[in-house]
Amino acid sequence: GAGADNDLYINQAIVFIEDAIQYRSINHRVDSKSLWLYRWYYSRTCQWILSLTITIILALAFIEEPSSLTVTSDVRYRRPAWNPPCGLTESIELLCFLVFMVDVSVKSYLIGWKEFWKNKWLMAYILTLIVSLADWIVSLSFFCKESVRIRRILRPFFLLQNSSMMKKTLKSINSTLPEMASVVLLLAVHLSLFTMFAMLLFARTKDNQQDKEWVVYFRNLPDSLTSLLVLLTTANNPDVMIPAYSKNRAYSIFFILFTVLGNLFLMNLLTAIIYNQFRGYLLKSVQSSLFRRRLGIRAAFEVLSSLKETPASAQQSCVSVGALLQVLQKAEMDSRCKQAIMRSLKMCSCDQLSAAQFQKLFEELDKDAIKQHPSSPEYQSRFMQKMQFAFGHPYFGYLGNVVALANIISICVVLVMDADKQPSERDDFFLGAINCFFILYYLLEMLLKILAMGLKRYLSYPSNRFDGLLTIILLILEIATFAVYGFPHPGWRPEFMGLLSLWDMVRLVNMLIVFRFLRIIPNMKFMALVVTTLLDLVKNLRAFAGILLVVFYAFAITGIMLFKGAVVPLGNTRYIGNNPNAFVFSLWVNNFFIIFQGKKVISWCFAHFQAEVICCLLYVLSVHLICRWAKIYFVAWWLISSVIWVNLFVALLLENFIHKWDRRCQRESLSDIEYQRTVELMFRDVLEEPTEEELMEKLHQHPHLQLCR
Asked: Tens digit of pLDDT for each residue in 638-658?
């Protein structure tokens, strides 16, 4: 009995510590079988299988009818796409649904019946599975010929519910919506008032030649509203005011006022509100994550203090060092944190740990990840020591930057001189000779740095790995060029040979040399700060990328169902004229991400990089081809992707940058240490530690854990 109880307490402590590391809730079953199932479910293998299943079910959209498996998106040149037979993708879907059913069953069992009814995500998970399975049955009953498949729009939910950080982010966005709605309402009022003014200013007159503004942009209320909405995105600026401006210059005042009030004031006010509100809600979310971590650590302490080996005479609860070491050996955690905690335990003189000491040990989880670079080799020779000092000095790196700059300047001079020459008129001798010289210098610089720093220390710096890799690639290309075309000499311009011509080889080498010039970034503190901010966003804000993928996927699938067959391919597209079908077809051919007639409406970069294309499609599809209600789809996309999501990204970019800017003065710049930040650590300085009373109150409310005190 006592041995079995001790094993149970040890296993409970292991799971609670793993929950704390991953910021998971501890409100789950804690009996022996449930703990084994819990650790199995959160093992790397199970989570990898679940992630693979989500990836597969999302990727099915690329092979389902209408298939995207073509080399080119241009319907004039591509072959008929392969469409899978009925039952193939449906069989894969069924396997994915089986995995999801196992997933939701295990989750529901582990948290218990009472907690299940409180968990809205799990209930939505089950509802999504039921609807998807019903739609799957309907699809098979129609032999896969149905045009609307509801389950395809629901697929992104499986990605959303599997990420706790995405759920927190979505909850934060949802909490920010009321404040955003007030500014969006103000934008709507601004748009409506100026629409009324526009219809009065540009009303129809007796002179048809002077009515171009009315005919094209302000013919009626929907067209006027659409024209100004597009102007709010600046996509039709200055086209929208050219007819009126040609008639009277004073009309430009109307468009200037609309743009200044809408873009410079209201849109930036929306950014400020989103930054202020979303930062607060994200801070609350991170605060709750910290509470979960502290609660998990305290729960581990409480169950370990219930071990039979704990002295009964102790006035307060305590945990033996041996029990904690046993837990640490079995727990899945970062090796750096585990080693740091074990070192602290070995340095501790006492055999028993209080709750405060126990919690302090695990504060190692909250610290920045520090990467210590290996030490340089120690040479005995006096000559080698001088060489190590000279070539390991920062000034040697600065010399390399100056040489790289000279290389860039020489390439620019040659490119300017040869800009108007035909390939047959170019003499590549000079460019080939200077490239050979600089590449040899880069190779010598790399070897000398390895000599001074040692190979391990050299490779421990990302800038050196980047520099060395490009140097090796440049050397290989240069050797290949010499092997095929010989050494540079006057009139060095042989004919095309092999895979690449000499000019192509030289261009490739020059592009890599220009790219290699990025090595100067670590030496410029402000530029390095900007780059590390962007890299931190890429590494740590995966939740935002996931939600963005959900939005893109849902709109793409919706677009397939809404606009299938809207545009008919034309045989001859040389003359487009005034045919709206031909106009959209030209957009179709020239923009790979917009493919209609049952093909994917892939929305990549719609509002961010190709706003003009959206506005053209918004006008042509809604006015000429389908119906005016199609505008709702494009306006919704613009609001969600461009207005809301871009501002959210700007808010987090500002928060990350300001955080790094404030810390750069507080932290001493150490050349041998690199700090790696996470989203939780970004707010660490402003988070409040939970009190012992709050932790104990929450533990006593645990639905499955009975504490001794």
From this structure: 888 777 777 777 777 776 666
**Domain span at residue 49?**
43-162
673: amino acid identity, one letter: I
Same domain membership, residue 534 and residue 443: no
**Both structure tokens of 346:** 């070995």
Dig out the tokens for 688 from the structure. 């409040």
Cβ atoms of 178 and 277 closer than 8 Å: no
* Domain closes at, from 523, 541, 558: 523
The rounded distance, in Å, linking the Cα atoms of 191 and 189 is 5
Do 179 and 52 lie in one domain? The reply is no
Of 107, 127, 113, 96, nearest to 40 by C-alpha is 107
Cis peptide before 690 (omega within 30 of 0): no
My answer on whether 250 and 134 are in the same domain is no
User: What's the pLDDT tens digit per position in 105-151?
Assistant: 999 999 988 888 888 899 999 999 999 999 999 988 888 887 788 89
DSSP annotation string for 585-605? HHHHHH-TT---SSS----TT
Same domain flag for 510 and 603: no
| Distance (Å, whole) CA 545 – CA 547 | 6
239 domain-assigned: yes
Separation of alpha carbons 654 and 677, rounded Å: 15
Return the closest-CA partner of residue 64 out of 41, 87, 33: 87
At 13, list the tokens.
Answer: 């402590």
* The amino acid at 290: L
For residue 238, whether the previous peptide bond is cis, meaning omega lies within 30 degrees of 0, is yes
Residue 423: enclosing H or E segment and its boundaries?
none
**What is the domain count for the chain?**
4
In the predicted model, what is the mean pLDDT of the chain? 76
Helix (H, G, I), strand (E, B) or coil at 370: strand
The two structure tokens encoding residue 537: 């966003």
In whole angstroms, give the CA distance from residue 357 to residue 476. Answer: 57
Q: Is the pLDDT higher at 703 or at 98?
A: 98
Domain boundary among 162, 186, 206: 162
* Domain match, 146 and 264 both: no
- Residues 501 and 539 both lie in one domain: no
Task: Give CA–CA dist 604/625, Å, rounded.
Answer: 23
Q: Is residue 3 part of a domain?
A: no
pTM value is 0.72
40 beta partners: none
Q: Which residues contact 515 (CB under 8 A, 6 or more apart)?
A: 470
- Both tokens of residue 202? 């540009």
Residue 402, C-beta contacts closer than 8 angstroms, at least 6 positions apart: none
Q: Where are the beta strands (DSSP E) in 347-493?
A: 352-353, 369-372
CB 439 within 8 A of CB 475: yes
Residues 6+ apart with CB under 8 A from 648: 173, 274, 278, 544
